[in-house]
């Protein structure tokens, strides 16, 4: 189903945070301590164009190709992963309570970055999750030779957060233009129930394609770990579908929302086409 989408990130702690400065590939960003681990890893991975090597699998899944061509078919930018009415029902079922402390949060709590050892879609296909999402979300994709079609060399992104068209080319100074964003940020999830999940479930959460989008790198940096109450994508037509995506993911992994977040998500559902 094609519709409009919504964006919501993950909120940081309400108290004034300490700040830190990180420099990667000539890009300097000031971020809150809560957001530092996730953002630094996204920047480093994008800047170097490196990811963990594809893990061995007994079988290798061939990804769908566009009709008449050899490049993977891109997922429509405004695809809804659930009907607005279904999302409204799931939102009503989410627990509403305050944010837990971020104590103990680490990216390592969600397993190896972009692990193929998961039971969600694309798991055990022999390719890492970052490249799975690039192949899904980019158009005109070309793969790096000798990688069994896994590693995306170039493509074109119709950026959902900004509406801008971005030419992606893998490389130390170019990969950072496109990030793979956790729609429900890992640190936000940690403070809203993920601490109680087991390691396998957290690894699935971090690699679930429904919780991942290829986006404009600068927009992802602006989002940090914000939730729907603190950040929405500038591209307003995307907000309905992004709100739906956040609700579905939080419901799937038994996470909760704050009251402000609940109200923000409900407002965005009101904007969805009927």
UniProtKB/TrEMBL annotation:
<dbReference type="Pfam" id="PF07510">
    <property type="entry name" value="GmrSD_C"/>
</dbReference>
<feature type="compositionally biased region" description="Low complexity">
    <location>
        <begin position="52"/>
        <end position="75"/>
    </location>
</feature>
<dbReference type="GO" id="GO:0004519">
    <property type="term" value="F:endonuclease activity"/>
</dbReference>
<dbReference type="InterPro" id="IPR011089">
    <property type="entry name" value="GmrSD_C"/>
</dbReference>
<keyword id="KW-0378">Hydrolase</keyword>
<feature type="domain" description="GmrSD restriction endonucleases C-terminal">
    <location>
        <begin position="128"/>
        <end position="267"/>
    </location>
</feature>
<keyword id="KW-0255">Endonuclease</keyword>
<feature type="region of interest" description="Disordered">
    <location>
        <begin position="49"/>
        <end position="75"/>
    </location>
</feature>
<protein>
    <submittedName>
        <fullName>HNH endonuclease</fullName>
    </submittedName>
</protein>
<keyword id="KW-0540">Nuclease</keyword>
């Amino acid at each position: 189903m094609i519709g409009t989408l919504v964006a919501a990130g993950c909120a940081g702690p309400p108290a004034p945070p300490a700040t830190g400065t990180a420099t990667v590939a000539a890009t300097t960003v000031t971020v809150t301590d809560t957001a530092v681990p996730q953002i630094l890893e996204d920047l480093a991975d994008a800047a170097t164009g490196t990811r963990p090597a594809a893990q061995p699998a007994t079988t290798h899944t061939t990804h769908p190709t566009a009709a008449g061509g050899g490049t993977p078919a891109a997922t429509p930018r405004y695809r809804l992963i659930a009907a607005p009415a279904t999302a409204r029902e799931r939102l009503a079922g989410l627990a509403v309570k305050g944010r837990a402390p971020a104590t103990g949060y680490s990216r390592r709590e969600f397993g190896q970055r972009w692990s193929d050892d998961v039971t969600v879609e694309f798991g055990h296909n022999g390719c890492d999750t970052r490249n799975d999402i690039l192949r899904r979300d980019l158009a005109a994709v070309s793969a790096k030779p000798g990688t069994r079609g896994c590693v995306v060399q170039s493509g074109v992104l119709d950026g959902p957060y900004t509406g801008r068209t971005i030419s992606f080319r893998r490389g130390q100074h170019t990969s950072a233009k496109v990030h793979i964003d956790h729609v429900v940020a890992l640190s936000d999830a940690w403070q809203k129930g993920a601490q109680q999940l087991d390691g396998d479930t957290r690894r699935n959460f971090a690699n679930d394609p429904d919780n991942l989008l290829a986006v404009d790198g600068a927009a992802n940096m602006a989002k940090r770990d914000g939730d729907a109450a603190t950040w929405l994508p500038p591209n307003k037509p995307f907000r309905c579908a992004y709100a739906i995506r956040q609700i579905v993911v939080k419901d799937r992994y038994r996470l909760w929302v704050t009251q402000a977040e609940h109200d923000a998500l409900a407002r965005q559902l009101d904007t969805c086409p009927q």
